[in-house]
Amino acid sequence: MSSALAARSALNARLASTFTRRSLRPLVVHARSVSDDAYVPGGPIYRGTVNDPTTFPPPSKSHGSYHWAFERLLSAGLVPLTVAAFATSSSSYPLLDGLLGVSLVMHSHIGFDSVVVDYLHPRKFPVLGRIMTWTLRATTVGVLVGVYQFNTNDIGLTELIAKVWHA
C-alpha cells in the first residue's frame, strides 16, 4: 500500500509541475538551455520592469556641482552688492541698482525652484508639478520686467528702500 501511495504522489507532483510550467510559459522569458525544467532562482524574470537597469540622464553643466557653486556664489555675492548699492546713490550708479535687482530676483527664483523640485516633482505630481514650474518661470519673467521698468522709469530699487527706511 505504501508503494501505491508513493506512486500516486509522484504522479501528482509530475502533473502539477507540467501544468504549472505550461500555464506560466507565456509569462516567463526562457533562455534555451540543456534542460527545459531549469530552476530560475527568485521565480520568473519579466522584461521591462524592476529587473531592467537604471538609465541615467545625460550629464549637464547646469546641474550638479556647477549649479550648486553658482547658487553659493550668487548668495555670497549679494552681501557686498547690497552694501555697495546702499552706500552709493542709485542715481549715480544705475548699473549697480539693476544688478542688485536682477540678482535678488534670480536668488529668489533659485530658492523657489528648489522648493518646487523637492516637493512638487513632475514624476510624483505630473500635472501640478509642471503647472507650478511654468508658473514660477512666468512669474520670474514678470518680476524681471517689473524690476527693469521700475529701475528705468522710476526712482529705482535702492532709492525706494532708502525712502521706506527713513519714512
Would you kindly provide a written description of the structure presented here, covering whatever features stand out?
The chain is mostly helical. It has two domains: 1-55; 65-166, Fumarate reductase/succinate dehydrogenase, transmembrane subunit (3 helical TM bundles of succinate and fumarate reductases, Up-down Bundle). The chain is built from five helices and no strands. The protein has helices at 2-24, 65-87, 94-119, 126-153, 157-166. The longest helix is centred in the C-terminal third of the chain and has 28 residues, at 126-153. It starts with a helix and ends with a helix. Belongs to the CybS family. This is Succinate dehydrogenase [ubiquinone] cytochrome b small subunit. One of its GO terms (molecular function) is heme binding. It is a multi-pass membrane protein. It is found in: Mitochondrion inner membrane.
Attribute tags:
3 helical TM bundles of succinate and fumarate reductases; 2 domains; 0% strand; iron; membrane; transmembrane helix; metal ion binding; transit peptide
